[in-house]
TrEMBL record:
Domain of life: Bacteria
Protein name: Zinc ABC transporter substrate-binding protein
PANTHER family: HIGH-AFFINITY ZINC UPTAKE SYSTEM PROTEIN ZNUA-RELATED (PTHR42953), METAL-BINDING PROTEIN HI_0362-RELATED (PTHR42953:SF1)
UniProt xrefs under InterPro entries: AdhesinB, Bact_metal-bind_prot9, Lipoprotein_PsaA-like, ZnuA-like
Keyword check for Ribonucleoprotein: no
Keyword Cytoplasm included in the entry's annotation: no
UniProt record similarity statement: Belongs to the bacterial solute-binding protein 9 family.
Record organism: Algibacter aquimarinus
Keywords attached to this entry: Metal-binding, Signal, Transport
Primary localization: other
A UniProt-annotated Pfam family: ZnuA
Location of this chain's protein in the cell: Cell envelope
Length: 300
């Protein structure tokens, strides 16, 4: 009888402890799908993670819904991209003064960034397209989460190390794929200027029809200028982006056609948002591989 009682007490003690641990998990909110994927890889089961933006969502134009404000108010840490990528959320973050808001871009040395006159930050915010930057962002997330939950530091560091290794093998794989495309064929024409860091890292000339932000629409002149460039450089394919309406790229294709030339639409790239959750392209690594395969296959 006594033994049973002790056993029962032990069970109760342990279940209470477990419940306490669950409740004590930190609430972490992230903005873009790229950041959600990164933080999920590091924080794993130790955090309650909520991502605001889904697949196909354009962060430049994204406005916080009432539900988002609720999520943000219950957050212990908010990870966002920064450099004015989430242009319409800046105000909301400013109101969250008591919250810990962390811009992933803080991990980077600003003097190494690509400049831009489109953003209030004066920098191109599409930093995830340089894998070396994303490695720095990984270390930054490990550090931030370790400071917030010191007792799980070892786990965050182990997760970070594993993820860095995955990013290294991704980089090696992509370099091999891109090496099969002759240098003169490495011209990437897309809907908006999201791929400048990609171009710098992998030696592509990159031209976006819209400026760096989708908030500015491409004009007739931009279309004319770019279609002349496509013809002159014998570019075989141009690309739609999953988070930008495809009419801009279709207008460009039509303009090339009206001048008696052909350019195909090489596929849809994931630029400012990953693919659907639960699919390969729904992860940063899967997205990158898919993009590179799509680009190389269409331009060959
Ligand atoms: Zn963008």
């Amino acid at each position: 009888m006594k033994k049973t009682l002790i056993f029962l007490l032990l069970v109760i003690t342990f279940s209470c402890k477990n419940e306490k641990e669950t409740n004590e998990k930190l609430n972490v909110v992230t903005t873009t799908t790229m950041i959600t994927d990164l933080v999920k890889n590091i924080g794993s089961e130790h955090i309650n993670l909520k991502g605001l933006m889904g697949s196909g969502v354009d962060p430049h134009l994204y406005k916080a819904s009432e539900g988002d404000v609720t999520k943000l108010s219950s957050a212990d840490i908010i990870f966002y991209n920064g450099l004015h990528l989430e242009g319409k959320l800046v105000e909301v973050f400013e109101k969250m003064k008591n919250k810990k808001t962390v811009a992933v871009a803080e991990a980077l040395d600003k003097s190494t960034l690509i400049g831009s006159e489109y953003f209030a930050s004066n920098y191109d915010p599409h930093i995830w397209f340089d894998i070396d930057y994303w490695k720095l962002a990984t270390n930054f997330v490990v550090k931030t989460l370790s400071e917030a939950i010191p007792e799980k530091k070892t786990d965050f560091e182990t997760n970070g190390k594993t993820y860095l290794q995955k990013l290294d093998s991704l980089s090696d794989k992509l370099k091999k794929t891109i090496a099969t495309l002759p240098k003169e064929q490495r011209i990437l024409v897309t809907a908006h200027d999201a791929f400048n860091y990609f171009g710098k890292a992998f030696d592509f000339e990159v031209v976006g029809l819209q400026g760096l932000s989708t908030a500015t629409e491409a004009g007739v002149q931009d279309v004319q200028k770019l279609s002349a460039f496509i013809i002159e450089n014998k570019v075989k394919a141009i690309f739609v982006e999953s988070s930008v309406p495809k009419r801009t790229i279709e207008a460009l294709q039509a303009s090339v056609k009206s001048k008696g030339h052909e350019v195909t639409i090489g596929g849809t790239l994931f630029s400012d948002a990953l693919g659907n959750a639960g699919t390969v392209e729904g992860t940063y690594i899967g997205m990158f591989e898919y993009n590179v395969n799509t680009i190389v296959n269409a331009l060959k």
